[in-house]
Amino acid sequence: MRNRSLMAVTAALAAGALTLTACGSRDSGSTDDASGDGTVVTIGFDAPLTGELSALGLGMKNSVDLAVRQANKNKEVPGVTFKVKALDDQAQPSSGQQNATQLVADKSVIGVVGPLNSSVAQSMQKVFDTARLVEVSINTNPALTQGDKWDKGAKARPFTSYFRTATTDAVQGPFAAEYLYNEVKKRKVFVIDDKKTYGAGLAATFSEHFTKLGGKVAGAEHVDPDAKDFGAVAAKIKSSGADVVYYGGEYPVAGPLSKQMKKAGAEIPLIGGDAIYSDEYIKLAGTQGEGDLATSVGAPVEDLASAKTFIEDYKAAGYKESFGAYGGFSYDAAWAIIQAVKAVVKDGELPSDARAEVTGAMQDVSFDGVMGEVAFDEYGDATNKQLTVYKVKDGAWQAETTGTFDD
Questions:
Q1: DSSP 8-state code for residue 34
Q2: pLDDT on residue 139
Q3: How many angstroms separate the CA atoms of 237 and 84, rounded?
């Protein structure tokens, strides 16, 4: 992100009181945040709401819910009441694809926020694109917007219905490499990934840039994302002479890996991407996680003036879960859909081709969001490319530095 990055319910059928309008519906009933006659528009949501990554997914869902509540309360789109339909993909591509099909079949759904995982997004993109249903996500794999040959200088947008509010791993991997090589003077790295779309892609962009800077990859391994025992790889790390470990993957593996490699004698820091930047990582790594690092998209939300209201409103809403690393970006994704709907609604009515119209309007959406300015380039990528390095200090993540990387 180059500029400052910031910033489920399906309509209930009331007999005789509902008539379909384009892809929305007419609802004379009241909602938690709005009442009176109006067009009901559903924003779909997909993320892991159960399982090991649910801590991230629930924070995302709550943030989307907050955006919808506020849009209704403030009548952001006159004549329109927004709802949320949240589905659980359990971080599984097959579940994501089934959820995408379900969301497409619900004619009140005009846009979708999510998913969390890039591999899940790959399974959903074509389903949404065929239905001309806009998707605004926080995924970071570059191929989702720039095609499979993006790293060979042949960028080609595969799906015009897909947008994202977070920057990509084409930026995040090199950003971490620059920090390790230039700021903390690391020269030998052991690279590990979980073979998934996000993890493998992030590790690849990091490794390429680290070696370009003059660093050496002392070893490389793939691990099973469902594994719990990392004794073998911990032994390889210790014998490699590496002074840092880079992990491409998520916190359920990264935390135990950090703990086990240090107990095996590899007393060096582990660094990963945004999917390990979670309090759950610190719980899993225990005291061995002290000094570990993570890069995450955006600036620290607590430091952003634009996020102050979001933080206060989220707390006041009483959500049990933290908004987490992706809450602000998810709020902004939902708000982007709301703004695209606002651009095509006339006198409280959606056009007959509402999904296609909203998808087209998304390209021109621009506003000051929770995480800063929200806008999209020709690929559907966020124009905001800011990132932050965090370090575990005294059992908590603390920001080390915030900046950008020009890809």
A1: -
A2: 96
A3: 46
Half-sphere exposure of 209 (CA within 13 A, CB side): 24
Place of tokens 């200090």: 393
**β partners of residue 245:** 190, 270
Per-residue pLDDT tens digits for 61-101:
999 999 999 999 999 999 999 999 999 999 999 999 999 99
Q: Tokens representing 344? A: 């095509």
Give the H or E element holding residue 339: helix 327-344
- In the structure encoding, which two tokens stand for residue 5, read together? 């990055």
Task: Decide: helix, strand or coil at residue 304.
Answer: coil
- Chain centroid to CA 151: 21
Half-sphere exposure of 146 (CA within 13 A, CB side): 20
pLDDT per residue as tens digits for the range 38-47: 899 999 999 9
Instruction: Using alpha carbons, select from 204, 210, 176, 175 the residue that is nearest to residue 192.
Output: 204
Average pLDDT, the chain: 91
Task: Give the separation between CA 87 and CA 227, rounded to whole angstroms.
Answer: 26
